Amino acid sequence: MSLGNKSPPGVRLARGALARAAEGAPPPPAVRRRPRQSRAQASAQALQDAFVRVLIERGYARTTIRELVGVAGVGVGTFYDYFGNKHALAAFWIHQRVQALEAAVREAAAAAAGRSLADVVDAVLAVQLGTVLQAAPEWAALFLLERQISSIDAFRSHYGNWVQMWQSALLGAADPPQDAAAAARMLHAISYGWISQSLLAHGPGVDAQALRAGLVQALHAVLGTLERGNIGRK
User: Of 18, 88, 93, 135, which has fewest CB within 10 angstroms of its CB?
Assistant: First the structure.
């Protein structure tokens, strides 16, 4: 993650809060204060960067606030300006990373709209899997941490957003399935589940080529079933 001129993820999420509220989505995990000045933004981003670094090196249980502020180069008081505790920072980081991945996948789906169903699915998978593999150590740590601290409400929110993304992507294809909602649930379960469990089971050194080939084969097999209209029908 960079501490350059881009606004930190927390600020970008704050800007998107009204849009999410209009869509009925729950807000991201609460932070105590939104950084608005450039120096405050840098401090908040430094804490998030430090959290990722220490999490990967030491694991969540051994991560301490004192170590985080030391790596970030800020005071303990600065940490509590933005986050009530380590759990709050962890939940916020998980939320913003998953939301950023979902947004990137939505853009890929929108760019592929009007193409064949297979092309749309391939475009979505390419961005989803490619983004995760580019930062495999970070995502392996995230998937493990997500299971340790995320609430059921957070899980349901992310699940609903991903299924809705898949449904929109499928409906944008030139040959959409009859039951896009059921197909979306199937494709999300396969893709997100396969990617997350592969990194959990094999770590960041997972065989990327085999993972990609297996996912493409599985998703295209589902598409073949969709063409026969079996999924989602009673």
Answer: 18
Question: In angstroms, what CA-CA distances link 97 with 51, 142, 146, 149, 219?
Answer: 13, 9, 11, 15, 24
Q: How far apart are CA 75 and CA 70, in angstroms?
A: 8
Q: Is the pTM of this model over 0.85?
A: no
Instruction: Decide: residue 85, CB within 10 A, 0-12 exposed, 13-18 middle, 19+ buried.
Output: exposed
Instruction: For residue 199, give Cα distances in angstroms to 31, 37, 192, 206, 207.
Output: 29, 37, 11, 6, 10
Alpha-carbon span 166 to 104, nearest angstrom: 13
* Summary mean pLDDT of the chain: 84
- How far apart CA 225 and CA 178 sit, in angstroms, is 11
Assigned token pair, 178:
């009859």
pLDDT in tens, 62-114: 999 999 999 999 999 999 998 999 999 999 999 989 999 999 999 999 999 99
Domains of the chain: 9-84 (1.10.10.60), 94-227 (1.10.357)
The number of beta carbons lying within 10 Å of the beta carbon of residue 114 is 10
Contacts of 196 (CB under 8 A, 6+ apart): 143
pLDDT band at 43 (very low <50, low <70, confident <90, very high): confident
